[in-house]
Each structure stands twice: as structure tokens, then as C-alpha cells.
Amino acid sequence: MPHVLVVGSSNTDLVMNTPRLPTPGETLLGATFFSVQGGKGANQAVAAARAGAKTTFIARMGNDNFGQQALLSLQKENIHTDHILLDPDWPSGVAFILVDDHGENSIIVASGANAALSPIQLETAERVFEHADICLLQLETPIDTVLYATQLASQYQTPVILNPAPATQLPSEIWPHLYLITPNETETEMLTGISPNTDQNAQRAAQMLLNRGVQNVIITLGARGALLVTPTQTHHIAAPHVTPVDTTAAGDAFNGALAYALANDQTLPQATRFACAAGALTVTQAGAQPAIPTATQIWQLLKNQ
Description:
single chain, four-stranded mixed beta sheet, 35% helix, globular
């Protein structure tokens, strides 16, 4: 079974549906409220596990109700949680999410214990880095910890996928350690100064990222699919057509499914197509982890397309 290691964040998502997103200073009456498990790291771990990977998750949560519920939820997904630390001094991370009638969202995250995930904690899990097939990272934990994770994975020749979300600048020393980077349109513009609003611009941006030392680039383009650029090939992978309900965690589902597919020896174009289907299915349901599809659902959508 392919083994995916995810290092990253776990949050409890507090979600409110509203007809439209408020403007500054405006108060709106929302429609419904619910809470679900989320956080980019945890979402991606769930996505990899549901796609079929043996999944190990390294994270830090508060030793509170939110953290204990999150840990139990991950264990129910058969995710290996031996390297998750429940911190008595930090609260668990939370995300406040507004979702409008068109499925678009705005998110504010209070990091809590995610901000305390440290290189020292990763050192205790060094053997997992050695035996994983893929290491998947995001940016909701300290950048020093993310950088250390890339170095530790490189030490054992474990390929690293970095999902550079939330959008921020990256240290120059991280690029040579990356097998693949997967920015969305906002993150691409942040990293390169180029908006990938056309295929030509997206290719220019991807080439700029390749020039920094990353081996491969996938720019996710929402309903337009994804652009895969390597030193030798370029593929525009179309996204399956679906009716969006909530775009929360679509990128996380994409990255988790992508990690599984690459760990399972799919080619980059095949893995990107599989990941696009996972992301598309996720936007058809509300919430983060509840909306992430299983392998059976992903393959069925690909078959129907």
C-alpha cells in the first residue's frame, strides 16, 4: 500500500452559510451554522487516506475538546496518529468560514497549537520520513518547520509535494528540496507576480518556479482544471464539470489525492487527472472533510467523464 506522510495543520472549522459575503462593517443574517473537522494538513491527510493510501499525519493540537475530537476523527479514518501531539499550553486551531450561495468562501484562521509545531517534534518521527513514499506539506504551520520537513525528506530521498497555502513568500533554500509545488491562482501570483489568467501566463509563471529549483509545477485553476509543467512537458488537465456547492477543501482534496496517486506510481499527468476529479467532487458538498471523496467515487467520476 502506498504510504503518504502529511505534516501540517489541524483546525476545527466553524462554518456559516450566508446569501453573500459581507462587506467591511456590514452585518448579515446567516442561514445555517455547523462545525466540522478541517485544517489544510488534516484535510489532505483525510483525502490521501480515502483515496487509498496508508497515511501518517504529524501535527500539534490543543489538549482540549476540539483537539480530542479532531484526533478521534482522524483515527476513524485509519490515519496513523502516533506523531500527533496534544499540547496542554496551546488551544487547538480554529477556522471561521463564510460560504455564500454560489459556493465561494472567505476564511479566517486562528492557528493555536499549529503555530507550535516544531522541528524538534519532527525529529521524533524521522523514521516515518525514511519509509514514506511521498511527503505532503502546506503553510499553516511555521515556515522553519516546513523547511526542516523538506530537508528531512530529502535526506531519505522521499519526494516532497508543497501546497503553498496560505499564500506567502518562500525561503530560497526550500526550492531544491521540492519534487512538486501546487499553487492555486492566488498563490501563483504571490510567488511569481504573474496572474495565471491565461494558459500563456500560467506557463510563464510555472517556468519561473522551475527556474528556482523545484522539479515540477502544477498550477490549479479551479473550474479550468490544472496546468502541469515539467522541464520536458506541459499538460492542461481539464476539470470534470460539476455544480459547485462549497469550494472549501477542494484544493486539499486535490493535493491529498495527488499524493496518493504519485505514491501509487501513477505518472504526473495521470495523477493530476485523478486529483482534479477529487477536487471537483469536493465542491459538490458542503464542509471540508465531510465533502472529501473516496477512491470509488473518484474513479466513478473519471469513468463517467
